[in-house]
Amino acid sequence: MKNNLDELRSTLESIRAAKYPDIPAEVISAIIDVQNQNQNDPARRQRETQKLIIQYSNQIKADGGDEQ
Amino acid sequence: MRFKKITVENFGPFKDPTSVDFSARNGVSIVWGRNGRGKTTLLNAFNFVLNGTVKDRDGNVDNFLSFINEAGMNEGKYTFKVILDLENNGKAYRIVRSIAVLPGVDKPTSNNHLHMVLQVNESGNILSPADSEHFVKRIMTKEVSRFFLFDGELLTEYEELLNENSVRGGSIKSSIEQILGMPILTYGASDSESAASTIATEARKVAQNEEAVSKYTQKLDAEEDTLKYQQQELQRLKEERDACILNRNKLQNLVEDTEKLRQFSERKKNIEENMNRQHQICDDEQRAIARILKDSWQWMIAPVLRKRLLDLQSAMADLHGKEQTSKGREIIIEYIQQAIKEIYCPVCDHPISQNEREKLEAKISRIKAETDGLSPEEKVQLESYRAQQAILTGYTSVADQAQEIKVRYERYAAALVMFTDFKEHDLREIESDLEALRKNAAGTNEKAAFEYLDQFGKVSAKIAEYDQGINRVNEEIEKTKETIKKLSMTIFEKSRNKDVVLANKKVAFAETIAAIFSEGIDVYRDKLSRDVERDATEIFMKMNTEEDYGGLRINENYGLTIIRKSDGKPVPKRSAGWEHMVAFALIGALHKNAPFDGPVIMDSPFYRLDIINTKSMVKALPLIANQVLMLPYPGEIDPSATRTDIGDYIVQELEIARISSNESTIKEMSTNG
């Protein structure tokens, strides 16, 4: 049996790489993991996702570009 | 995920701790068991330890009391326990779920006297109750477990997937998407959007004090308030709808649990209608027979009277003949006398001579002398006969109705037999079945069973109304969000504040992440659909024995149709057995495409299949999962053919053996089994 989470990851990575290359691949992958691990706990899932996005967005600089 | 061992104690027919060890090797474990020995109990054990739910043979859900071993109960042991040892992502886990008696209860008599206890041990560490719950839900949600733990009957559910408008099909579609990991994308998108909204709110707080954008921030605040109100309204509708859904699910369980009650009740109604019809026929025929019998003496004595009439007519014949002859001669005499009197012949009109006159008078004398008329006594006799004849003829003309009585009686008797049959057998049987069902359904009667169905329909209609309302509010929310987005853009464009500019970038960042997840939904769904179709076709073709069946085609609900090789068209009507195999192929394909793998436990999966298709499906078993536990009954599959066909994949063969009428155990299959 294959691990289809990799295929899901690769589907999003294709979209990211083709249309949104500025978004770091790791944040998408990390959100996938958070979602996968907390499917039964909506509050925790939402909280952890938000935490990840804020954590990555804090690396953005005001004068263009970011710290990625 | 791999199962290592399951142990049941005082659960169903297993009084003493009884285990099934799963070999470390991948393949198929077979646990043979005759009906009633405990195969379905084993499937229930998996459902219980993973989901905390059980379903008894009558379809009652979570009637835990009925799962306590009878012998154990007689010894005062009112608890049961299921332990599952498994391995997940390299860690060893032990899940222990048990049913215990509530404090203060000596002997439980209802499920209200029991409570459930769950404990999970992760690599030697006992998890907290909350973490234990989280763990079991995470490794296999209830929705997902239906694809791992199933019986043959459950396979029939998947036929609903072919019906695009089926509510149940829609719910199964949702379960399928869950096993395939779609919620990761849908919730990934909505949670990212929610994060973007939080960041945007924070950013606007920064911009509020800046004069260049203050009028836009005020408008934005108003729109935010509108959005807040709309979201509250949405939340309210969703909560009310969810409450309805919960209610509907409960009702659905009740409707399903009481299905037999309704069916039997309908059957009873039909029997009673049939009884009434037969009773009516009996009544009608009885009345008709009584009516005919009222005058029956007339046609009953008719044969005797007819004989009497014949005798009478015979007796009358001589007298009648005599009377007729006499009458004829009298006419001739009268005729001659007329000729003598009128002197002319009445035939040729010539005058009668004296000689002729004498001859005629002599003739009269001769005729008179020859005539022997009726004597006065004979005349009286003849008149009497005639009077009797008139009376007898009246009675003998009455039609014989014996045949009609016979026909009507046969109809009456047949109706009476049917009525008695319905009353003595069908009605008694159905009433006894109904009584048993009422007892099992904890006092639910037929009236309640029909009310559940009625309420289910009403709640479903209400849910549809809520869905429409939710869609309308969602459309409004989208409009408001669009306005907010435009206002935010204006604020960020016009703002000179560095923090606002930075916040704008952060919002865009979060929204882009949401867009990636959102765009991924359709792309991934299309891909899954193609992959499931391909893998299901592969499994199906391994089982297929029909030359013209070329593969499977998937629909939007993940329903699969068989496609003919000859014309590329779907096979219009498939037998139950083929439906079963298609459903099996779908489950195999879902396992291949799910983001995680796990063991498959199947209880009597072949009951709708013929010998050839059973053999084909057995061959396909190793394709659907690394670990397969099959629970067949003897005769469901051929043991020696199975060993020949998938011998390399069989890791162990066990059997459920009976110790006593209320106790079973699991042991290695005997060599000739």
Notes on the structure:
The complex is a heterodimer of chains A (68) and B (673). Chain A is mainly alpha-helical. Chain A has a domain at 24-37 and 44-54. Chain A is built from three helices and no strands. In chain A, helix 1 (4-19) packs antiparallel against helix 2 and helix 2 packs antiparallel against helix 3 (42-57). The N and C termini of chain A lie far apart (35 Å). The mean pLDDT of chain A is 85. Chain B has 673 residues and is an alpha/beta fold. Helices cover 62% and strands 13% of the residues of chain B. In chain B, helix 8 (214-257) packs antiparallel against helix 15, helix 11 crosses helix 13 (376-396) and helix 17 (576-593) packs parallel to helix 18 (611-624). The longest helix of chain B has 49 residues, at 446-494. The radius of gyration of chain B is 48 Å and the shape is elongated. The interface between A and B is large, with 40 and 46 residues.
Oligomer: heterodimer
Distance between the termini of chain A: 35 Å
Determine the number of helices of chain A (DSSP H or I, runs of at least 4 residues): 3
User: Which CATH architecture of the domain at 1-140 and 603-673 in chain B is right?
Assistant: 3-Layer(aba) Sandwich
Summarize model confidence as the mean pLDDT of chain B: 85
Please report which band the strand proportion of chain A falls in: under 5%, 5-15%, 15-25%, 25-35%, 35-45% or over 45%. Answer: under 5%
- Under CATH at level 1, the class of the domain at 1-140 and 603-673 in chain B stands as Alpha Beta
Query: What share of the residues of chain B lie within helices?
Result: 55-70%
**Secondary structural class of chain A:** mainly alpha
What is the compact description of this entry?
The complex is a heterodimer of chains A (68) and B (673). Chain A is 66% helix and 0% strand.
